[in-house]
């Protein structure tokens, strides 16, 4: 696991908001960084490499395949995990409160969605 993944796992393993998470969860040909079974949510911590070369296209194929399995993917920039862990965990827990068939109650917090 990368340093941001280790840091996030230290919190997710405590079951924040009474949600259970798994780390390095295998599904099909993929291994998810983290998975919340109750919310059917994959959490991927993306470092700089995810923006390079054909990685964005591969990530899109993976996310589409997971969605076909009924699993949404939440991508969190590694820099956000390192810089604002509390906001990232809150964002993940809020997202886990909404099943796939329900829309989020507004946009994600600026500090956890990777937009500048």
TrEMBL record:
Q: InterPro entries from the entry?
A: DUF559, Endonuclease_DUF559_bact, Restrct_endonuc-II-like
Q: Which residues form a coiled coil?
A: none
SUPFAM superfamilies in UniProt: Restriction endonuclease-like
Superkingdom: Bacteria
Pfam families (UniProt xref):
DUF559
The molecular function GO annotations come to: endonuclease activity
The UniProt keywords, alphabetically, are: Endonuclease, Hydrolase, Nuclease
DUF559 domain spans which residues? 1-96
Q: Which Gene3D superfamilies match?
A: VSR Endonuclease
What is the protein name given in its UniProt record? Endonuclease domain-containing protein
What does UniProt list as this organism's lineage?
Bacteria, Pseudomonadati, Pseudomonadota, Alphaproteobacteria, Sphingomonadales
